[in-house]
Amino acid sequence: MRFLSYAGLLLGLILFTLLIVWQGINDILHLLLTSGWYLLLLPLVWTPNLFAAAISWRLLFPRTRTPPYRQILTALWMGRAINTLLPVATIGGEIAKARLITLWGARGIDATASVLVDKTVQALALVPWGMIGAISLVYLAVANELVKSILIALSLLGLGILGFILVQRAGMFGFMARSVNAFIRSEKWGEITNNAHEVDRVVKKLYQDRSRFAFSVFWRTLGLALQTSEVWLACYLLGHPVSLIEALMLKSLTSIMSDIAFFIPNAYGIQEGGYVMLGVLLGLTPDFSLAVSLATRIRELMVDLPGILVWQHIEGKLLLNRHRGRQSPGKDGNRVQ
Question: At what angle do helices 228-237 and 244-260 cross, to 10 degrees?
Answer without folding.
Answer: 120
